[in-house]
Design goal:
Chain A is of the alpha/beta class and about 650 residues long. Chain A has 18 helices and 34 strands. Chain A folds into 5 domains: about 120 residues, Rossmann fold (3-Layer(aba) Sandwich); about 180 residues, FAD/NAD(P)-binding domain (3-Layer(bba) Sandwich); about 60 residues, no CATH class; about 160 residues, FAD/NAD(P)-binding domain; about 60 residues, Alpha-Beta Plaits, CATH 3.30.70.20. Chain C is an all-alpha fold and about 180 residues long. Classes of the chains: A alpha/beta (about 650), B alpha/beta (about 290), C mainly alpha (about 180).
């Protein structure tokens, strides 16, 4: 005869105000198989835990039902408590009388009756729960980091310094990300490349880091501790072992200075053979196969000039795409963000005038390694502008575009105001149209004050539109600080566009089984308490792929993600939850349907025994195979058909 | 394939803006559009929106119900009417309580609104339903050398969420049609500015100032003329141009034509048929071949 | 507890504010409460330069509940309904629709209807259109008539009594 104990939690008044907890415990104590039922204010507290443990011992319990909150909250806690008390942790059943009962109903009498049904069905399940033992899995002490911006760089370095092998995959020919495009960083005005380049070099030279640039993730299989990753290495058409980064190929390229440079945000030009920027890592050239004459048309004059120019003989047009495989124990996703396309706010004139630019484009003009060597020139006439006007919140905090705050726009604009003043001197006019100035970080408010002292015209308001006039741009702005409408005639307009999820976030999320939040960025497991975890064990997120943030926060989060990944990688083996699928070998016909439906590739067909098998390490316990099995040979441990039907019977 | 619509004339076009109506009736049948004259239409209600919005809804709904009775979609050449009818349909579809309430009132005239109608304006009828290619095929006298600015009119562009005949911020359909006719549309910064007409009822001076400012800007940029697609806008820019000029102390002489008039000219129709002598602005300056 | 406007000694009318917002939701999805005073509406307002209409201020006053002040102000009748405020509002607030509501309330409260609105309304009542056939001339000052141009007769309500009955009902009702 089984001996079940029922523990009813008040959850303060969360449950108790709508469910008569005393009556519920009294009712539970009468149920078949129940030897004791108790209620207490907070079962999850230390006192509650002790109460459960003591009761287990006193009544020699062999199964426990906890009537409390959702199992998502405290199932883990109560399993541990039961284990400490001497009951197999998988013989604990949670009856959710909070989310599914007290919170959902207002009539106390009816809620109590419903709670009784719920507890009765949980007791019936508890009576048939099997004791289970978790199996173990060897952890591969290597990590995959996806994305080589500042987030991915920091995570990789942290993990590599901890002694773990890191595979860093970057889609572009060089790591560095958006940070490499910046001239200075706010609020300290550190030179961006001066602080970033050493880190990039460290990545290149670290013995524990394998840098896979110009590469993309093709597939990810497996689970925490043991992932198999397929990576596509795009052909560079340059033998990286031979290339010295001398630049002779780029200088010789027939298309030199004729292709829009992505790195320079279209403000400069490059050739088909190119290096994205002088500090690129790896310092290897690449040939753009979408533009190169030889690769697109099969002909480049008499012969490709780059090949002729390369003394190292590094140009290899027959290079092919290559798929490689790596096995890792943990994954950190640091894929960054996209800048919103400013043509989405057409009325701000980005499409109509070359003198309307984005902050990132201006950054390239300010940068001494940029297309103008740091000279700020008005794009339409290459003259020094006499007036520059910033418009903040372009597409941000906007229900028709991006509802969120980009968190860097205000400070970016203030920084650029500072740099323009420094570079262009006192005599130019600088206007800023802002909604609110958000200067929340350390040293930010002080920086804002500093810029206020640079006789900048701050207008509190949003322009309705930017008009492209014959030789200038015109903005009407109603300034709410003076309650006046001003007309601004200006040479250049700098738009501060919203930060958006990467265009391919949805497909990428599907590849990794990650969840997205409503805004389209990757969703963290808990906004406060698990900010870098995802809902997939062993996969972590860092940087702007989770939400817009500045470099400071990105680096902090990157280190946090590294540390979370290290908690997995530092273990030799991991326990595997035993609540997974199994096969009744006597019934299984080996039809293979379960193999097809399993999204985790945890199912294989044993040809010799002519049955399907479950790989415990890969099975996520989703239940897909149970529903698909035509002969009922697939069984979900402790969620058997009999157990569930008994529960239903008890509720009906 | 012949397209068939009930022509919803509204108030302004059939009581004074004959040039629009004439040119519509002359040109659209050439493009296989059958226009059906339906008895019993009334004002769309838009001019009453400031006074009583329920009245606006009621009037729009009764017109939609009349079209429904004849199983016809609606061709609405007036921008204001087009917005009123579209918005009414949007509200009735979205808000069943309001639909019931309006239908209760429509009983007085033995009418009921129960199904959605397709409501087109000149711009989307020409550009989307007929298509630029087909228009091009009908051109007999290309409007070579006609460089002209376009005025869309606020009500056919906004609000975008109701679905308007063209993009709210970068409308290009009239430009595409003009190019098909051989003319050259000219861009100008004031393109989306209002004609001022909605203020005509209570602040006529201000309304005309608005008109004058826009025409003055066009004139100062040396643009040959202006094309429009709404009887209200046209009333301001063409019929009242002289008065509008007085408000901005300028002698305005900007030729203003309806798009359908240009369409007719390019199709080789006579000036008379297209009502070109009804335009009060100096359209002869455009040197449209048929206008001579 | 209470809030009072010390310049006018006016108190917010929260009931009317709620009523007005309810009315707006019946006609569209937006309500004024989301406005964060960026004044993009006023920056682009077609009526502002000529007539000092400040749409963002209208919304602010509405949010503050100062409805009477708004209803009695002549400035609410200066809107050109260009709809740019509604189109470009980053918070999907529609000042133009708020202004329609305020004007409707002013009329319902018996405030003098400005300009030709009354005449247009009377014309609608009698013939279904805001105006009857106008005298029209050509550029060379020749008078023309609709029928001379070969245009068909006006489309207007056929049974005027029934038409008027429908409209009279509405005069008594609010949105």
């Amino acid at each position: 005869m089984r001996r079940i104990g029922v523990f009813v939690c008040h959850c303060g008044i969360n449950i108790a105000q709508n469910v008569d907890v005393k009556a519920l415990a009294e009712y539970a104590s009468q149920l078949n198989g129940v030897v004791v039922a108790k209620e207490y204010k907070y079962m999850c507290s230390d006192v509650g835990a002790t109460l459960i443990k003591d009761t287990i011992k006193e009544f020699k319990l062999d199964g426990v039902v906890i009537a409390s909150c959702s199992p998502r909250m405290h199932e883990h806690t109560f399993r541990r408590v039961a284990n400490d008390g001497g009951v197999n942790p998988y013989r604990v059943e949670i009856s959710n009388i909070r989310e599914q009962c007290s919170w959902a109903h207002s009539n106390k009498g009816q809620a109590t009756e419903k709670a009784k049904f719920l507890v009765r069905s949980s007791v019936s399940k508890a009576l048939s729960l099997e004791p289970l033992k978790p199996s173990t899995l060897k952890v591969i002490p290597e990590a995959l980091v996806i994305g080589g911006g500042i987030a991915g760089i920091q995570t990789s370095l942290d993990l590599a310094d901890d002694g773990f092998k890191v595979h860093l995959v970057e889609r572009d020919p060089s790591i560095g990300g958006h940070m490499a495009q910046l001239d200075k960083t706010f609020p300290t005005l550190d030179c961006s490349s001066c602080i970033l380049t050493p880190k990039m070099m460290e990545v290149a030279n670290h013995e524990n880091i394998e840098l896979l640039s110009y590469a993309e993730i093709v597939s990810i299989e497996g689970s925490i501790g043991n992932y198999t990753v397929k990576i596509k290495k795009k052909p560079r058409y340059v033998d990286v072992d031979k290339c010295t980064g001398c630049g002779d190929c780029a200088a010789a390229c027939r298309l030199k200075d004729r292709i829009v440079s992505e790195f320079n945000q279209g403000m400069g030009k490059r050739g088909a053979a190119y290096m994205p920027f002088p500090q690129a890592v790896p310092l290897k050239y690449v040939i753009d196969d979408k533009k190169c004459l030889f690769l697109t048309k099969g002909k480049c004059g008499d012969e490709p000039l780059c090949k002729k120019a390369c003394v190292q003989n590094a140009i290899t047009f027959d290079q092919k795409e290559e798929i490689i495989e790596r096995k890792v124990g943990a994954i950190v996703v640091a894929t960054g963000y996209d800048v919103m396309d400013p043509t989405l706010v057409y009325e701000y004139g980005y499409d109509q005038s070359p003198d309307v630019v984005t902050t990132l484009e201006l950054e390239r003009l300010i940068s001494s390694s940029g297309p103008t060597k740091g000279e700020i020139l008005r794009p339409s006439n290459q003259q020094k502008p006499k007036s520059v006007t910033f418009i903040l919140c372009v597409g941000s905090r906007d229900e028709t575009q991006c509802t969120w705050c980009c968190r860097i726009g205000c400070m970016t604009a203030l920084k650029q105001v500072y740099l323009l003043r420094e570079k262009l001197g006192e005599d130019i006019e600088i206007n800023v149209c802002y909604n609110d100035f958000r200067s929340f970080g350390k040293g930010y408010e002080e920086f804002y004050r500093k810029v206020r002292g640079l006789h900048t015209n701050m207008f509190r308001g949003r322009p309705s539109e930017v008009r492209t006039m014959k030789d200038h741009l015109k903005i009407d702005i109603f300034d709410t600080t003076t309650s006046k409408l001003f007309e601004i005639k200006t040479d250049m307009v700098v738009l501060v566009p919203a930060m958006m999820p990467r265009k391919d976030t949805t497909q990428f999320a599907r590849l990794l089984h990650l969840t997205l939040s409503g805004d389209g960025f990757f969703l963290e497991a808990h906004p406060k308490l698990r900010p870098v975890d995802t809902f997939v064990n062993g996969i972590f997120i860092a940087g702007c792929c989770q939400a817009p943030k500045d470099i400071q926060d990105t680096v902090s989060q990157a280190s946090a993600a590294a540390s979370r990944a290290a908690t997995i990688l530092s273990q030799d083996e991991l326990e595997i939850d035993p609540l997974i699928a199994m096969v009744d070998e006597d019934i299984c016909t080996g039809c293979g349907i379960c193999v097809e439906v399993c999204p985790y590739e945890a199912r294989t067909l044993n040809e010799r025994k002519r049955i399907a098998e479950v790989n415990d390490a890969l099975c996520a316990g989703c239940g897909g195979c149970i529903a698909a099995c035509p002969s009922n040979a697939s069984i979900h441990k402790n969620f058997t058909k009999k157990q569930l039907l008994n529960m239903v019977d008890d509720i009906m | 394939m012949k397209k068939k619509y009930a022509l919803f004339p509204g108030c302004l076009m059939p009581t004074e803006q004959y040039a629009y109506e004439l040119s519509i009736r002359e040109t659209l049948p050439l493009l296989d559009v059958e226009l059906v004259d339906v008895e019993g239409f009334s004002c769309c209600g838009e001019p009453m929106k400031s006074v009583n919005q329920l009245l606006t809804l009621y009037l729009s709904a009764r017109n939609l119900a009349i079209a429904q009775k004849h199983h016809l979609d609606l061709f609405v050449p007036c921008a204001m009417c087009h917005l009123a009818l579209t918005e009414c349909q949007h509200i009735l579809e979205k808000n069943p309580a309001m639909k019931d309430r309006i239908n209760d009132m429509l009983v007085a005239e033995d009418l009921a609104y129960t199904e959605k109608r397709h409501i087109v304006h000149t711009v989307d009828l020409l550009h989307d339903e007929i298509g630029v290619q087909k228009i091009k095929e009908h051109v007999k006298k290309p409007l070579q050398g006609v460089k002209i600015a376009v005025h869309y009119g606020c009500h056919i562009l906004r609000p975008r969420e109701l679905g308007r005949p063209d993009d709210s911020e970068n409308p290009q359909k009239i430009e595409a049609i003009l190019k098909a006719l051989g003319a050259e549309p000219v861009n100008y910064p004031q393109k989306l500015d209002c004609c001022g007409a909605p203020l005509l009822a209570n602040l006529p001076e201000s309304a005309l100032t608005k008109t004058g400012q826009k025409l003055q800007a066009i004139q100062e940029q040396g643009i040959q003329g202006l094309v429009d697609v709404c009887p209200w806008c046209h009333k301001m820019f063409d019929s009242r141009q002289t008065k509008a000029g007085e408000t901005v102390a300028a002698k305005l002489d900007v030729p203003v034509v309806y798009l359908t008039q240009l369409l007719g000219v390019a199709f080789g129709l006579s000036a008379e048929k297209l009502g070109l002598d009804l335009n009060l602005s100096p359209v002869e300056k455009l040197q449209l071949e048929a206008a001579k | 507890m209470s809030i009072i406007d010390l310049t006018s000694m006016g108190e917010p009318q929260s009931e009317q504010r709620k009523e007005l917002n309810d009315r707006l939701t019946k006609l569209q999805d937006e309500i004024s409460d989301y406005c964060f005073q960026c004044a993009r509406c006023t920056s682009g307002c077609e009526a502002h330069k000529l007539l000092e209409l400040e749409p963002h201020k209208i919304v602010a006053l509405l949010k503050r509940g100062l409805i009477n002040e708004l209803v009695n102000a002549d400035v609410i009748w200066t809107c050109m309904t260009c709809l740019k405020c509604r189109e470009r509002c980053p918070q999907r607030v529609a000042p133009v629709e708020i202004l329609f509501a305020l004007k409707n309330i002013a009329v319902a409260n018996g405030k003098q209807i400005p300009g030709k609105y009354t005449a247009m309304l009377q014309s609608i009542l009698s013939i279904g259109l805001i105006q009857d056939i106008q005298q029209t001339t050509t550029r060379t000052n020749k008078t023309v008539k609709r029928e001379e141009l070969g245009l068909p007769p006006l489309s207007k309500p056929t049974d005027v009594a029934k038409f008027q009955a429908g409209i009279m009902k509405i005069a008594m009702e609010k949105v």
